[in-house]
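A.,

Following up on our hallway conversation. Structure tokens first:
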């Protein structure tokens, strides 16, 4: 995900970003090429179903929060795949708008 590097750098600086991610793993929530607005977030306010820009096991994803447990987040896509658990330090931002 080449777009993720630039988005993460901006989010770490407190900036809101817009990206057009490619792929089909989030079909129905984020379709291939949709314009997605991502804002920095407070991990304590994240909930199941939120779409986040996150790093899981060294790979960056725009995926869903599937579960929350004691400050950790289970990340997965919209097709049933689970990527794994991450801490708050691996969550870079939350999708606040998705447009075709």
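Then the amino acids I'd put at each of the 100 positions:
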């Amino acid at each position: 995900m080449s777009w993720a590097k630039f988005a993460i750098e901006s989010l770490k600086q407190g900036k809101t970003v817009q990206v057009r991610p490619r792929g089909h793993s989030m079909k129905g929530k984020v379709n291939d090429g949709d314009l997605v607005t991502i804002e920095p977030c407070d991990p304590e306010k994240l909930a199941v179903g939120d779409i986040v820009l996150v790093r899981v096991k060294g790979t960056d994803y725009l995926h869903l929060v599937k579960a929350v447990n004691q400050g950790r987040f289970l990340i997965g896509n919209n097709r049933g795949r689970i990527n794994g658990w991450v801490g708050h330090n691996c969550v870079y931002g939350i999708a606040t708008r998705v447009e075709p």
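The chain is about 10% helix and 45% strand. Curious whether your intuition agrees with the design.

B.
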